[in-house]
Amino acid sequence: xxxxxxxxxxxxxxxxxxxxxxxxxxxxxxxxxxxxxxxxxxxxxxxxxxxxxxxxxxxxxxxxxxxxxxxxxxxxxxxxxxxxxxxxxxxxxxxxxxxxxxxxxxxxxxxxxxxxxxxxxxxxxxxxxxxxxxxxxxxxxxxxxxxxxxxxxxxxxxxxxxxxxxxxx
Length: 169
Description:
By secondary structure, this protein is an alpha+beta fold. Helix content is 54%, strand content 15%. The chain has two domains: 13-60, no CATH class; 70-164, Alpha-Beta Plaits (2-Layer Sandwich). The protein has helices spanning 13-43, 48-58, 62-92, 120-137; strands spanning 99-105, 108-115, 143-150, 162-164. β2 (108-115), α4 (120-137) and β3 (143-150) form a beta-alpha-beta unit. α3 (62-92) runs antiparallel to α4. The longest helix has 31 residues, at 13-43. The N and C termini lie far apart (69 Å). The model has no long low-confidence stretch (mean pLDDT 88).
């Protein structure tokens, strides 16, 4: 009978000290942030969002806490996906877009893009930018979908979309 080799790594005292140092640094920083928040709250300088967050946490209402965390997660994910998309489209691919608008849903983001007529390069770059953003977003069960129209189509941006101000790139 073969004996299995142990995969458990023994931590040396030196490595253990590093872990403890990391814990100490992290907790010191965390407590410092909490104290800062406490001062802001007690002096009335906290933002409405920060005040609301602590009121929810202090209420011990688990359902409200989970809902708040979900909303914040969605906001941060949407922001990151939009930035990934725009960075790829504008900064990496140098794509000229006439109009760009976004509609955020709980599991994804819809994009409305208006391009110049017959601009196949812009269309290709929009598709590739969407693919890159979706590669990132799929890890979080989030999806991006782009509707591409040409200027001459004369379609209005649907009312639920929020238009982004874009300059010349």
